[in-house]
Design a protein that fits this description.
By secondary structure, the chain is of the alpha+beta class. The chain has four helices and eight strands, in the order βαβββαβαβββα. The protein has two domains: about 5-135, 2,3-Dihydroxybiphenyl 1,2-Dioxygenase, domain 1, CATH 3.10.180.10; about 140-174. An eight-stranded mixed β-sheet has the order 2-3-4-1-5-8-7-6, with helices on both faces.
């Protein structure tokens, strides 16, 4: 077993009746936002809410669940809840998935590079619940690096400009 500790950061509910589920959680007081087109041509529906403590609650319909979890492509489907854990690297996802399968747990979705940019896998816990293992989103990480670089360039330019202005504003010695 690896020393990398997973972080529980997501609960994903695959809703039988998507609209009724969203209505219920909104009535409960959760600020749920629909993501993408409300009625996409491919039938995919997704919504999410980030709770005050930072925990992410997500809602998918079965059409979307089939795209990221191979067990939903079989006739028996899968559990209606996915418990999501983040792992620090793409390699950690592969390693944890392999460790769990070697220990006898059922794999639902082997690790793969998901369309949203993360490395992703799904295993079943002993009660049959789906447990997602996800790396950070590579595209977000690349954007953060690019943003940090852009900020560094702006700061350098600002410092140079201030230094030039400072030389112009210094009073001359008499």
């Amino acid at each position: 077993m690896t020393d990398v500790k997973p972080v529980l950061n997501q609960l994903n509910i695959v809703a039988k009746d998507f609209d009724a589920t969203i209505e219920f959680y909104r009535r409960l007081g959760v600020d749920v936002s629909l993501v993408g087109d409300a009625e996409s041509s491919d039938g995919i529906r997704h919504a999410e809410a980030t709770l005050p403590n930072g925990f992410v609650l997500e809602f998918d319909n079965h059409v979307l669940a089939r795209t990221y979890n191979a067990s939903w492509r079989r006739s028996e489907g899968s559990s209606r809840v996915l418990i999501g854990f983040s792992l620090p690297t793409r390699e950690a996802v592969d390693q944890r998935y392999a460790d769990l399968l070697a220990a006898g747990y059922a794999g639902r979705q082997p690790p793969y590079d998901a369309f949203w940019g993360a490395r992703y896998a799904v295993v079943a816990d002993p009660a049959g619940n789906d447990v997602g293992l996800m790396s950070p989103d590579r595209r977000r990480a690349q954007k953060l690096v690019a943003d940090k670089f852009t900020l560094a360039v702006i700061v350098t330019q600002l410092e140079d400009s201030c230094a030039r202005q400072n030389k112009k504003l210094r009073p001359r010695k008499a």
